[in-house]
Design brief:
The complex is a heterotrimer of chains A (306), B (378) and C (327). Chain A is mainly α. In chain A, 74% of the residues lie in helices and 3% in strands. Chain A starts with a helix and ends in a 10-residue tail after the last helix. The chains are: A mainly alpha (306), B alpha/beta (378), C mainly alpha (327).
Chain lengths: 306, 378, 327
């Protein structure tokens, strides 16, 4: 296991984590401000990817596709908020789970109805493809580096939004005490729609960016959704900082665990069994991490203590 | 679940000698919704094309969607056997669903013709006189890939597959025929979408070639990421990651990659040519290997109906074993365990006009049986 | 508007009448569907004890369903291949006897529920939901990688297990068995909700601090409820495996956990017959909607949305016209 390989794997874990952060940030905002569990967040991720693929295929431009993803997901998010989510704020978590679960069904089969059952084509644009050589002789795909940079920029942007703008103040106040800010005359309805659309746009962006190097197909959002929930739970609900740190933790655990656990076990078992057991342990590793964090810190790393 | 009753109208049975009267009812359980639906849809379309072409009066097909869930597949099988009273079952794509349905169905005296899933148990110890596999045994395409890797002169291969029974079978099958060293052997997570870590390992391992089995979306992700990484080693895989449906989603990243398959659209025989043309005319797309498997399954069934009555199990079984039909693969023959003995070709991914497709460049294995037939005590 | 007790009585009637008709009309598949609904109902009643009375939203309850299923699968597998399960420290052989299998399923589920509950109940709210989900996922991936029992392919059990005095392969007899168990579990749930324990649990859900001041420990109450609920769902899992003669890791999946929750909400949270009606409705929808179109999930989703948004208190609530459960 050379140092170069190690650094490359760390970069991979970082990139995976940062893409998760885009999903988790939206999710944690929505839950923190609106108290809503949104299982349909994975569907918004998928909608972003499909919009990007459709527009990129029609226009030949990846950037236009990205813009379409942001717009498409945001519009879908706003629509869903106005029609469905609005009625769920007063209900308990159970009803929210069921309603957003129902939305997953509708979005998934709806997408399949419109776009068909086969995966769509979306590719990395030429100006971002291929590897670059980093200091130290490491060859790393340019696109993945771009993802890391974009993700960090978004994190910075969110930080500025939350801490420096008026909207950010409203969001922070809303996380603290929903009723109070309503009493103070802030238009809650509009705030919620904006926050939901923002979260949706982030998910859609993530879907489009990741869809270029993975498969754009129906149901692509569900595995990511589960991981995003794990991230916000580890990080603490409502905390963007927690989402970032949680996402990086999860990304690194998943990537490095998947590589090193089998290697470790090869010391004790034959290669085939070691890779088998190691691979299963790696799958379970993230959940074991989350359970461990919750047992020690029942509200997540940066969550509000009860 | 969609009920399609093809009680084919009369008057199209030109030139067919009349079958022996007893109507045959077929239950097709396949995946028509969700992420893996493309394969089931292809199998169904290929099967129904053959049924339509034959215009047989006495053949009725009931089609249901298993949603890729084993318990739904079992439930549908129960329904088809108990309620619809089918004689023959077919259609299942995935090995785990097949394992849930086939043993019970054959034990109840029904025939099962598999157009896709070929788990090793059903080829060996678990074989059954009523079970026929028209496609391949799961290991076959991987064995061919191993043979090809030798032939291409690669001596230090890096192999990877997901950590589930079909994945393990894939690597076992590859290693059965591959004679060189292994630069690495990895089991990835089922459903994994990010292969950056694995590709980094490939790069660092000093391998001279890569073999992978990553069906569906997993393969698409891997190919795109592999191309982007700059690791330029030759890649070999089984056709499951390079079928017509997936290739359009992968695009240029798949060009030049070698894959093994028992069928391709350019196999030279009249039946295949007619099939490809008819499929394109009927459905507006090129057929995949799954469609050809569905087509062949239907034709096998029709050929048996010509010779025997489905209610006479022994006669019908003999008729199936004889396999006297025009397969898209040319000559078709079953081994003693009811799995095909066939050639496995080597194909390269090319672009024809706007469409990505495959072209045969050689043969990896000829008249190849599977590794489990001797365990079968039929 | 029909009174809730009348709705309950009608449901019981349907549970007997429909299979009887199916037997008469020679439609064994309908009996199979009813059995499926009955087993799902048992699983959901189990969850409803923790969720409806205790307020514990467990998104990982499929873990017990899977444990019950695999208990059956592993024992029956060893019995049908005539190999021993373990030879040390003492010989454990497989078995195909349902009562034994149920006992094992129940004990294993109880043990798992104790451990998972003890760890999870340290959290509340959405954190609790997530940690139960995490445990479900852990078992799911573990089962996939357990090659000895089929891994992702699952295990097929060729012949249904035996119950003394019955021919379990006959659909109506197996259904009768499941129906009997369903009634027993319903009776148990009803008694529980009226017992001191049930009342205390209900109070602990609504006002934990007051319960503490009275001298009861809400954490202990919830843990006991969680264990009981896990046990019942585990029993359902063993029955489900017998129905399909098949176990696979999907029995541990979070989608299945979600479906169990759907049965409860569809029928009416906290209501005695809620899970039963919800399970019946869901199985019926699953079966009929599929005939409408290849994309029938859309209709299912729309229907669920309507029930959640506009139906007060699930189907029972809509039928009996009362929003909350009143004792």
């Amino acid at each position: 296991m050379s140092l170069i390989l190690l650094i490359e794997q760390v970069l991979n874990g970082l990139q995976f984590g940062i893409m998760l952060f885009l999903m988790a940030a939206g999710l944690t905002l929505i839950f923190g401000v609106m108290g809503l569990i949104n299982l349909a967040h994975g569907s918004l991720y998928m909608i972003g990817a499909f919009c990007a693929a459709a527009v990129a295929a029609a226009t030949g431009s990846f950037v236009l596709g990205l813009i379409a993803a942001l717009a498409g997901a945001a519009i879908a998010g706003a629509l869903v908020e106005l029609v469905v989510i609005r009625r769920l704020y007063d209900k308990d978590h159970l009803d929210q789970v069921l309603a957003t679960f129902a939305l997953i069904l509708i979005f998934s089969e709806g997408t399949r109805w419109i776009f068909g059952s086969f995966p769509l084509f979306l590719d990395v644009p030429d100006f971002l493809s291929g590897p670059v050589t980093l200091p130290g002789g490491i060859e790393y795909p340019l696109y993945r580096l771009t993802l890391i940079v974009v993700g960090l920029l978004v994190a910075l942007g969110l930080y500025l939004l939350i801490s420096k703008t008026r909207l950010g103040v409203q969001i922070r106040a809303g996380e603290n005490d929903r009723e109070m800010i309503a009493a103070l005359g802030i238009d809650i309805a509009k705030l919620y729609t904006i926050v939901f659309a923002l979260g949706a746009a982030l998910a859609g962006l993530s879907g489009a960016l990741v869809g270029a190097i993975q498969s754009v197909q129906v149901g692509m959002g569900e595995p990511v959704l589960i991981l995003a929930f794990v991230v916000i739970v580890i990080g603490g609900i409502g905390s963007i900082k927690g989402a970032l740190i949680g996402a990086i933790l999860v990304g690194l655990t998943d990537t490095l665990g998947g590589i090193f656990l089998p290697e470790l076990l090869k010391l004790f078992f034959d290669p085939s069994t070691a890779t088998s057991i190691g691979s299963s342990l790696a799958s379970m590793a993230i959940y074991i991490l989350m359970a461990a964090v919750l047992v020690l810190r029942p509200a997540g790393l940066f969550g509000a203590r009860a | 679940m969609k009920l399609v009753t093809m009680a084919a109208a009369a008057a199209l049975a030109v030139g067919l000698s009349g079958a022996m009267a007893e109507p045959v009812k077929v239950g097709m359980i396949t995946t028509l919704s969700g992420g893996g639906a493309g394969l089931g849809i292809d199998v169904r379309d290929g099967f129904m094309l053959a049924v339509k072409q034959a215009g047989h009066e006495d053949l009725e097909v009931v089609i249901e969607d298993d949603q890729r869930k084993p318990d739904i597949a079992v439930q549908l099988a129960d329904k088809m056997i108990q309620s619809e009273k089918v004689d023959v079952l077919t259609g299942i794509i995935w090995s785990n669903l097949a394992m849930a349905v086939v043993p019970a169905a054959t034990a109840q005296g029904k025939f099962y013709l598999s157009p896709n899933a070929g788990p090793s148990v059903l080829a060996g110890k678990g074989c059954h006189p009523n079970y026929f596999n028209v496609a391949w045994q799961n290991d076959n395409l991987h064995e061919a890939a191993g043979a090809y890797t030798n032939f291409a002169g690669h001596k230090n291969a890096f192999i990877l597959a997901p950590n589930y029974p079909a994945g393990k079978d894939a690597l076992t099958g590859f290693k059965r025929f591959y004679k060189g060293d292994l630069a690495g052997e990895i089991y990835t997570k089922l459903g994994q979408t990010d292969y950056a870590a694995e590709i980094a390992q490939i790069r660092a391992s000093g391998a001279d070639s890569v073999f992978f089995f990553l069906p569906g979306g997993m393969g698409i992700s891997f190919l795109k990421q592999y191309k982007d990484s700059g690791v330029d080693l030759p890649v070999v895989g089984p056709a499951f990651s390079f079928d017509q449906g997936i290739l359009q989603a992968v695009g240029d990243a798949a060009l030049g990659i070698i894959n093994t398959s028992q069928w391709n659209k350019d196999i030279e025989n009249p039946a295949n040519k007619a099939f490809v043309e008819a499929f394109q005319a009927e459905y507006g797309r090129l057929p995949s290997l799954y469609a050809s498997q569905g087509f062949d399954t239907a034709n096998l069934l029709l050929s048996a109906m010509e010779k025997a009555d489905v209610k006479d199990a022994d006669a019908f079984r003999a008729a199936l074993e004889a396999a006297e039909f025009q397969s898209t693969r040319g000559e078709f023959k079953f081994g003693p365990n009811h799995h095909p003995i066939q050639d496995i070709y080597v194909r390269e991914v090319v672009k024809e006009g706007d469409v990505y497709t495959n072209k045969i460049i050689g043969t990896a294995l000829t008249s190849h049986a599977d590794a489990y037939w001797s365990d079968c005590n039929m | 508007m029909i009174r809730e007790t009348h709705v309950n009585a009608l449901t019981l009637l349907a549970l007997v009448a429909i299979p009887a008709w199916a037997l008469y009309a020679d439609e064994p598949f309908t009996i199979t569907l009813m059995t499926r609904a009955a087993i799902f109902a048992i699983a959901a009643i189990g969850l409803n004890i923790a969720l409806g009375i205790g307020g514990l939203v467990s998104l990982g309850h499929a873990v017990f369903f899977g444990i019950g299923g695999y208990a059956m699968g592993i024992l029956a597998h060893h019995a049908q291949t005539y190999t021993a399960l373990a030879e040390w420290p003492f010989l454990i052989e497989g078995t195909k006897s349902m009562p034994v299998i149920w006992l094992v399923a129940v004990c294993l589920s109880a043990l798992a529920a104790l451990i998972i509950g003890a760890l999870s109940l340290r959290t509340t709210g959405v954190y609790f939901i997530m940690i139960t989900l995490a445990f479900g996922q852990m078992f799911f991936f573990f089962a996939i990688s357990w090659a000895e029992y089929g891994g992702e392919d699952g295990l097929s059990i060729y012949v249904r297990n035996g119950f003394p005095g019955l021919n379990t392969l006959a659909p109506i007899q197996f259904y009768g068995l499941c129906l009997a168990l369903l009634v027993i579990v319903l009776l148990f749930a009803w008694k529980l909700s009226r017992s001191p324990f049930g009342l205390a649990l209900n109070a602990a859900r609504q006002a934990p601090m007051r319960v503490e001041t009275v001298g009861l420990d809400p954490m202990r109450l919830k843990l006991i409820a969680f264990v009981i609920s896990g046990v019942i769902t585990g029993l359902a899992g063993a029955l489900f495996a017998d129905l399909n003669r098949f176990v696979s890791p999907t029995m541990f999946s979070w989608q299945l956990s979600g479906e169990i929750i759907i049965f409860i909400i569809l029928g009416g949270v906290g209501r005695l017959f809620g899970p039963v009606i919800g399970a019946l409705a869901f199985v019926a929808l699953e079966h009929w909607l599929g005939g409408l179109s290849d994309y029938w999930h859309i209709y299912l989703g729309l229907l669920l949305l309507v029930v959640v948004l506009f139906g007060r208190g699930g189907l029972i609530g809509m039928l009996s016209g009362r929003e909350a459960v009143h004792d």
